[in-house]
Request: fold
Amino acid sequence: MNTNQFGKKGWTPDRIGNLNGKIYIITGTTSGTGFEAAKILLSKGAKVIMLNRNPKKAEDAITILEQELGKGLEVINIQMDLSKQATVKKAAEEISPGTSIDVDVSFPPPSNEIVLPTRSTG
Ligand SMILES: NC(=O)c1ccc[n+]([C@@H]2O[C@H](COP(=O)([O-])OP(=O)(O)OC[C@H]3O[C@@H](n4cnc5c(N)ncnc54)[C@H](OP(=O)(O)O)[C@@H]3O)[C@@H](O)[C@H]2O)c1
Reply:
């Protein structure tokens, strides 16, 4: 087994298999690491629920993703500003009760990244 995790022969997104049927929630996908994470996961067939504070920027990000990956992506945006608790509560309520979330990824500053493998229902 190759234990080298970095470098040319280490882990790359190429190693991610088919993610059909998986649901990821990503906070902050208008740029940077969140955008790149969304692109990789969508390219592997996952469904991505984006949580962004600016709907116009979110819409623009989805347009770019569709241009790069093609139409028919399983992606939706829900408005949420992490600094406004009411929008966090509303976003949580908007995510369909009963949705089984596979992974929750949060990148926005200043929190640094939090990756929470989850398997929640409701
Ligand atoms: N440890 C490491 O090696 C490493 C490497 C790279 C990055 N990081 C950290 O990872 C984080 C992200 O970096 P990045 O370069 O991807 O940053 P970025 O390009 O500035 O992206 C930040 C994203 O978070 C969103 N965001 C910011 N505040 C928000 C809020 N209150 N509610 C909802 N969304 C919010 C932004 O939305 P808007 O478009 O609305 O602004 C944007 O989509 C930073 O904290 C950075 O320090 C760590």
Notes: The chain has a mean pLDDT of 84.
